[in-house]
Amino acid sequence: MSVNEQVLNYPIAGDAALDPPAEWAELRGRCPVAHVKLPSGDQATLLTRYEDVRKVLADPRFTRQLTAPDAARLSAEGGGVFSSEFAQIIPDGGEEHQHWRRLVGKWFTAKRMAALRPRMTRIAEDLIDDMVERGAPGDLKASLGFPLPVYVICDMLGVPAADRDRFSYWSDTLLNLTRYSQAEIEAAQGEFFTYMSDHLTAKRQQPGEDLLSELIAIGGPEDGGLSDIQILVTGMGLLVAGHETTANMIGKMVAMLLADRCRWESLLADPALIRTAVEETLRLDSNAGFGLPRYLREEIEVSGTVLPRGTTVVCSMAAANRDESAFDAAAEMDLRRSPNPHLAFGAGAHSCLGQALARTELQVVLEVLLRKLPSLELAVPVEELERVEGLAVGGLRTVPVRW
């Protein structure tokens, strides 16, 4: 049966942790608007071509909110980062959404990131020193990939990094596809909500030099600021987004660059390639996770297929990033590729708010690793790397390295 006629289970599993599923190329070529079955059992429409994904992500008629009665549920348990009641609190479109982005986005400008860079570099150096002290082999994800973004986002939000294991668990439950039960998810979201509530109460009494203190200081909606519940959900959202995806990407980036030793050698010979190498690993990441779901409020045509109102569309940015019509030699890793208009951070009004932060963290990690551990290599064959399962974000369970 061809991909046109079958309903594929989604997410589509790849054979190896760093390789794309073979179905992506087939879907892009012959069935760019495909029917898929989600972990919940509900059906959705999957887009895999670059132009289609970019168009849908930038189109305001496709909404982020999956709480409509006829929207597909991603997981059987419902809830989660895309469809819980929390997801409805941040405005989804129009002037309100732009206003929210302007208030929060001030903390994620390239200028702010440049100012944060020396601190990020020191954190990365300390974490690598600790890993080296413990001796090889080490797990690069646990030693560096996970703690670095957590320290940075905790700093920006003024929350104690000592609570990072709890944040990690709460994040995982919000990103659940098949790993946690309904009871576990509800309990974790309740704990997370209470924690952030208490944190904001403390901030009101003792403000600091952080994003949440500044949002509180602006005042409520009548003063041009956000409501209390919006500030709370913004804090939760940034904590989840600010560490989970980047922690996973650090591990995947290093694994991709070490999978073929020539790539690592190229960077050692010319560290000026770090910036374009980071962009290329973001583009070639075949294990990016679920993609971005969108709900259609009115009928629309995509690649010659009419999608009725009420359709849930899943945009696979990872599949789109390997589209030969958008990138020359799309399956090849070219560390010098420029320009590189990949869709790893989405597109349009909802493109990732923290992309300057993620890029800076990835560049710093690579800079420091190349400088401090030039002999770094994977401690297991690439085929033995294992994917994170059951969550909406993709990652490697561990990244065993030696030096």
From TrEMBL:
CDD domains: Cyp158A-like
Entry's Gene Ontology molecular function annotations: heme binding; iron ion binding; monooxygenase activity; oxidoreductase activity, acting on paired donors, with incorporation or reduction of molecular oxygen
UniProt keyword S-adenosyl-L-methionine, yes or no: no
TM spans (from-to): none
UniProtKB keywords: Heme, Iron, Metal-binding, Monooxygenase, Oxidoreductase
Pfam families xref list: p450
Domain of life: Bacteria
Keyword Metal-binding: yes
Leader sequence segment: none
Family membership: Belongs to the cytochrome P450 family.
Name used for this protein in its record: Cytochrome P450
Organism: Nonomuraea muscovyensis
